[in-house]
Amino acid sequence: MAPSRTRMRSRPGTGASSERAPRVGFVSLGCPKALVDSERILTQLRAEGYEVAPTYEAADVVVVNTCGFIDAAVDESLDAIGEALEHNGRVIVTGCLGARPERILERHPRVLKVTGPHAYEDVVSAVHEHLPPRHEPFFDLLPPQGVRLTPRHYAYLKIAEGCNNKCSFCIIPAMRGRLASRRIDEVLREAERLVASGVKELLVISQDTSAYGADIRYAPGAWRGASYRTRFIDLARGLAQLGAWVRLHYVYPYPHVDEVIPLMAARGVLPYLDVPFQHGSASVLKRMRRPAHSENTLARIRAWRAQCPDLTLRSTFIVGFPGETDSEFAQLLAWLDEAQLDRVGCFKYSPVEGAAANALPDHVAPQLQEERYARFMERAAAISRRRLAQRVGRHMRVLVDAVQDGTATARSEADAPQIDGVVRIENPGKLRAGDWAEVRIVAADDYDLTGQISPQTCRGIS
Ligand code: SF4
Hints:
By secondary structure, this protein is α/β, with parallel strands linked by helices. It has helices at residues 32-47, 71-87, 101-107, 120-130, 172-176, 184-196, 232-239, 261-265, 282-288, 297-307, 326-339, 366-389; strands spanning 4-6, 23-30, 51-53, 61-66, 91-95, 113-114, 154-158, 160-161, 180-181, 201-205, 220-223, 226-229, 245-248, 272-274, 312-319, 343-348, 395-404, 407-411, 423-426, 436-444, 449-453. Strand 15 (312-319), helix 11 and strand 16 form a beta-alpha-beta unit. Helix 1 packs across helix 4 and helix 11 (326-339) runs parallel beside helix 12.
């Protein structure tokens, strides 16, 4: 969950006018889940007639959606609030860090209001309080799919809030609360609207996608005349009806996840699983209190690949967790060699205020963490390089994200936006962002591929 940021620009503005619609500036920090929160808040505000301002100075008030996942993200959030105060002065704060208002008010006592995570109504009320809506809202300006901060051709689909797990390094359950799943029919209807509006790729997110529906006893729902239950496999089967790329994020290696693999082999959903394994040593996983920590993950991966050889596995890891011994770290490297994951991210463990792991003994010295991080990343890069080299010469379908300076940046079914590699296409001709293309892979490096356009490519093939 690498923090990302949707920034505002700073430039001299013309000032607010009582003739025009009230304008809200928005800074969105953090993971895709926070981005979806931002989209919901903006959708509501647009529905009420607010406009979104592109610069601090053009905004009548600025909302900063913060991240509090790790200490570096807290610092970035506090800096962003300071920047908004400096350039605009009227700032409302929401998001994960809003669960700890004292941290914010201590450094920035001038903020107008602090609201917590998953509190859309509170943010919208705070905006009403400090910037009342116009009497006649432009309801018809709101596109039916809502307001999105992602490019038009892909969208995050948030299926649940909160988490019932108790990972010892994480405070998200304390900040976001217990698992609260959205009903299957509501999620499938939203996905349908997104696809109808031009979205070609749906990225399913939540804190624990494999636990979807457990909190509402897998409640039944109807969609397109068929019955579904609010559960992982029904979600995948429903989304497979839409003809879009469907990518599943934050899935834990529970036995019931096996059910989705045949659907991936048949390309109902993309053969891509984002499974945050976090470590390869059973004793470290136990100290981390990871969900499914007792599962034999290597056996599970072998079985998945036997059924779906093209499966791309993405994961994140933490090195230097408290008490991690040389032997446990060696187990992690051996696990990685065996698992041969395609895409790997890594964090050096850092304490987060309020996390249970802070109290564990034998914290690993920063220099040793650094060494382990470098060794881990070197090993992961070598695996990635080998696996990508095997794709040279293959033909694949890609989705173009951007075209700039004579090169298109696209993604294959193995690449999630922002976090994985890309396929670069030289001489992209008339390709534009959001187009499909057929390419032949001609080169590979550690993380990315280079492709040449195949003759059958044409704009908008589906
Ligand atoms: S699964 Fe673990 S790391 Fe993820 S949100 Fe829940 S408690 Fe945090």
